[in-house]
Each structure stands twice: as structure tokens, then as C-alpha cells.
Amino acid sequence: MECSITTTRSSRRKTPSPTKTSTPRKKPAAALSRSKKAALREKPVTRKAAAPPPKAAATERRREVIIGALDALKAEDITTLNVQDICSFADYMIVASGRGARHVTSLADTVVNALEQSGDGHVAAEGQETGEWVLIDAGNIVVHIFQPETRTHYNLEKMWSV
Predict the structure, then answer these.
(1) pLDDT tens digits, one per residue of 45-86
(2) What is the C-alpha separation between 145 and 134, in angstroms, rounded?
(3) What's the pTM?
(4) How far apart are CA 112 and CA 125, in angstroms?
(5) How far apart are CA 105 and CA 129, in angstroms?
(6) In whole angstroms, what separates CA 161 from the centre of its chain?
């Protein structure tokens, strides 16, 4: 009887060993150029900008500019509504009337120009083409300038009063 022994190689694959994560080596300080050494020693200079006025003071200043511009051109029945607790998009609503379409558009132009000259930047105004109702978005103050008939029709003071 013959006996044969056969050996077979294992078909198992070797699993790769986990790779070592190496941290990059830092160059010794002697290898750095002089300018890089100086840059590493210097600390960044921080300059303090002038602090902007508090929100409440800036809002009051803006409100005074708007009311002053409306008074200068003889706007009628200027009403200021404090809507801080009622809505999230404005702190104040200022409602005023002009005698006619030309007066309303002139009041709106004056308010926009006064705000831009006081440093409030670009102010958006809508409705100047018709002059019936002009809405001015002055940040946290919204200005409505109406002709008298339109103002009584919409009655914003009653709608926004608490």
C-alpha cells in the first residue's frame, strides 16, 4: 500500500498590517530662514475699531433724523408707534401725511436723503412713482408717508396700536 501525502498551500491571504500614522517632523529652528524666525516671533497686531453706538442710541438718532426731515417739509400728523414688543422686523413705525402726490414724494426724497447724509447708508423706498403711499425701510424703523385719503383708508395706527 502506498501512502501519498500531499500538502497544499493555504489559500488565505495575509491581511495587511495597520499602517502607522506618522506625525510630520518639524524642521529644527536652525533650518528656518531668518525671515521665518522673525515672523514666528512677531505677534499679530490687533487694532481696536471704534465701537459703534449702542442699538438704542442709533435707533433714537435715526428716529430724530426722520422726524426732523418730515418737520422741515411740513408733513402733517406725524405719529410714532413703538412696535418693539409687537413685531420682530422694526422697533418704530413712523406714519405721516402729505397734502398731495407731489408733497408725499418730496417728503420721501427728503427722508431718504437725510438718512443717507447722516451715515445710515442706502435706504430703500417703495411707492414714489404714484405718490399715494410711500414706504421707507430705514433698518429698524419703517416710515409710511400717505396722502390723507389713503391714510384714513388703511388706518395703520389702529392696526398697530395695542
Answers:
(1) 555 555 555 677 888 888 999 999 999 999 999 999 988 888
(2) 5
(3) 0.65
(4) 8
(5) 8
(6) 27
